[in-house]
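chain below, 374 aa
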Amino acid sequence: MRVLLRKLIAQLDSTTRAESTEEIEAVQHLRYRVYVEEKGWDVTENVDHERRLLSSPGDTAPETDIVYTGTPDAVRGAIRLTTWAPGDLPESVAQVYGLGRFRGVEDHVVTRVTAGMMVPELRGHPTALTALIAGALRMVVKARQPTLWVTCCPPGLLASYLKVGLRPTGGPLVQHRTGVLIPMVGSSTDLAHLWRVRSPLLPVLAALNAAGTFPQVAPVLPLDMESGESNVLTDPARVLEALRVSPGCTRLDGGILAWLPPCLVEQIAAESSVLDVPAGTVLARAGVEQREAFMVLSGLLEESRHGLPPVPVWGGDVFGTDGALSLDGRRVTTVRAVTPSRVLILRSSRLQQALVEVPELAQAQGNRILTQQA
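prediction:
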């Protein structure tokens, strides 16, 4: 099984631009399978149920590249990239990704990465997603020379996006039908950062920079991104600091951190990120397939389930275990921030490890982790 997975991931590195109608419709068919048939999205526009195609008005636009791996008869993964010349970036796009905080963004070629998807046997493997994004960006960077690339990332996939070389923009979190998304940005000329994260894009971007491919434009990263101030914390030291000052470290009536050994808390911090979410933000939606859980570090949220009164969720509590611990990853509860809140993105593997190492944890949580599965 592991050998097969490695072969499938290797295929993602060999990407093809969809140019013919057959290729584009093959990608649209995969899109239909993933979003309509598997995820159950109620799509009413640009959908052909008879032919099982889900399209987008931008699929055939001249600024769009649809990149896929596999063959038209068996597409394994696909992603869409839209590139704008300097000065052509729509204001609506700049707002979604928080680019108004960036100096001189109008001087840059900008590529937006959207509609990434993979066949079920590859889904859930971070290495596969990283390979797909990196393969598509390599192709488009060579053809269109963007100096900036932007996308929105589900919280559970943040670690994979960071490995490509993307960073949170610090712009407002984006509310989506699946929950919340994090605006991200990457730079084709920031080789120092790509080297720090060991990005798979580094070799091709280093060669293109050495060849003078990119125009000489000033860096645009906001000052607060350089200083680490953001609504998304990804630096392990700052994440650990946020955990240590959380009420969950001292709350013995159910706070998870108070029960965990220090070494496990440090492991969690090393591979997790922290989100600051405004009041009213929906972090998890019932019926959506999501594998990550969240730990509340501060603030008040409410968890609702069909037919039952909302339940308060506060510092030290864990929510989202319905998706993280279930076989199909589908949530049965919806969680909304009542006040401005800070939450930790918690990998399902670390949650499972905590439950194994500290059996008292489920009881200390007031059986929340177990009752969410019922």
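The chain has two domains: 2-223, 235-371. The mean pLDDT is 82.
thats it, cya
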